[in-house]
Write a structure and sequence with these properties.
Oligomer: single chain
Mean pLDDT: 89
Helix content: 55-70%
Order of helices and strands: HHHHHHH
Distance between the termini: 28 Å
Number of strands: 0
Amino acid sequence: MGAARTKPAPHSLLMANDPFAPLERARRWLTVAILAVLTWQYARMPIDASVEPGFLHLPDLVFHEAGHVLFAPFGRFMTVLGGSLFQVLVPVICLVAFLRQNNAVGAAICTWWTGQNLIDLAPYIADARRLQLVLLGGYTGAEVEGHDWEYLLTTLRAMRHDVALGRSAQALGTLLMIAAVVWSVRLAVRDEV
């Protein structure tokens, strides 16, 4: 009996016979590079919202506002929390959908997006006492009698933890984004073999 031959992984077989394989590899490494650069930019954003929140803030805001509407039937607290909750749930739902389709690249990108949303929320959470963040209508929370996180933390009697919770959201978001970049690198390297 001869030595058993190992079969190449299905993705390697496809890449070997695919004339577009070099383009696919380039696309994967470009994705890794973009995620890495954006992770660096988002991870360095100050928690006090003294800089523009980034180009993904507006698409994230759509899901945030939709969350208020979707959670409205569950009472005032859930209506207010629903904005931030749905903003984070949308990329998590997409992540699960990609995992169910065995699409690891899509799942890695959605993991990154989940982290980015947490970083996007961090200044909002940390601003609950200061109320200096400019809101959707162009006014600060102080000018319009508060905002979501001021209400939520007041209701929970946790207002003194606003900055700590904001920093925790920022740290968790950063960790998720770094994990997504590492995952993307592993996927790109795996396809090179």
